[in-house]
Design brief:
Blueprint lengths: L1 E8 L4 E7 L1 H11 L3 H19 L6 E8 L5 E7 L3 E6 L13 H5 L2 E8 L11 E6 L6 H12 L3 E9 L6 E11 L5 H13 L3 H6 L4 H9 L4 E11 L5 H9 L3 H11 L2 E4 L6 E4 L1 H10 L3
Parallel strand pairs: 5-10
Antiparallel strand pairs: 1-2, 1-10, 2-9, 3-4, 3-6, 4-5, 6-7, 8-9, 11-12
Bound molecules: zinc ion.
């Protein structure tokens, strides 16, 4: 299963997180049937969202939403504190022109939003945190870094990669690494990191060769010592279910459900996040009608 690690370096003044996400991206691509370039874009966003989520303790749900004017139109990913992630793109068939995978071309210009919601688990709903910045390059990794700098005042380095291949399972490898520089970090170390990353082998090459999350940390930090504080399994998992689909149908109201029963002889719902379709037959619709008071 895919793994996510996080840790610290330089006496806690640098936070580091890294993940290998090939299974997650394969599952997302299988569910949404995305084009190669849309797969790369979605894979980078899913990976970046997991990395961003791993540094936060006081939240239940973190959502990254890209609204853009390129062919892909938009990307949404959501993760929780349990390491589950789900996501989708608005136009799965978006493809860059020519023979190259050009993520920034299908993204175009737009906005990068982060929404953090907390308190659901314990029934204490707190006001969600919402941060937005314009897209920086549309290459996704840069956009996460730009968001962290502008919205959270955290200088960072974010490298995200998805390696594609022409045969199934199409995603050869996927992963990413994020460094966050905390207040008090030594300027000399920051320069060292910038230099290390500038001269490091390409992330996509490393993950294609079978790198583990810790290899990505080493690549980004060079000779700087680090400590891994946590390692967890992560997966593409949606929170939808037949029960939730039925509850959503019920929320439309008795008249609407009666018309579904009488006119359509059933109902169908598709979850946007995971593309799972739920069918409700006549008996199930009747059951919902019976459960709704007059
Ligand atoms: Zn779903």
């Amino acid at each position: 299963m895919d793994k996510l690690i996080h840790g610290t370096a330089a006496d806690g003044t640098i936070r580091v997180m890294a993940a290998i996400t090939a299974e997650i991206v394969r599952e997302a691509v299988r569910r949404h049937q995305t084009s190669p370039t849309a797969s790369a874009a979605l894979g980078r966003v899913l990976t970046g969202t997991l990395l961003l989520g791993s540094s936060l303790k006081d939240f239940d749900r973190l959502t990254v939403r890209i609204e853009c004017d390129g062919a892909i139109e938009g990307i949404v990913a959501e993760t929780n504190a349990q390491g589950k992630v789900r996501g989708y793109v608005r136009n799965p068939l978006a493809e860059s022109k020519g023979n190259t995978v050009d993520v920034k071309e299908i993204i175009g210009k737009g906005m990068f939003h982060v929404i953090r919601e907390a308190g659901f688990d314990v029934g204490l709903y707190r006001e969600p945190y919402h941060g937005s910045v314009p897209l920086y390059t549309g290459e996704i990794g840069d956009d996460f870094a730009y968001y962290l700098l502008k919205s959270e005042q955290i200088p960072s380095a974010v490298l995200l990669g998805v390696a594609l291949q022409s045969e199934a399972p199409y995603i050869k490898a996927a992963g990413g690494v994020m460094l966050q520089i905390m207040p008090g970090a030594n300027e000399h170390l920051i320069t060292m990191i910038e230099d290390t990353i500038a001269h490091a082998p390409h992330l996509t090459k490393l993950i294609s060769e079978g790198a583990a999350p810790e290899d990505l940390v080493k690549m980004a930090l060079g000779i700087i010592d680090y400590e891994i504080l946590d390692e967890r399994e992560v997966e593409f998992k949606c929170s939808c279910s037949p029960e939730r689909a039925a509850a959503l149908i019920a929320s439309l109201g008795k008249a609407e459900v009666e018309s579904m029963l009488n006119e359509d002889k059933g109902a169908e719902m598709t979850c946007g996040f995971c593309n799972q379709t739920y069918h409700l037959d006549e008996a199930q619709l009747q059951e919902i009608i019976d459960s709704l008071s007059n």
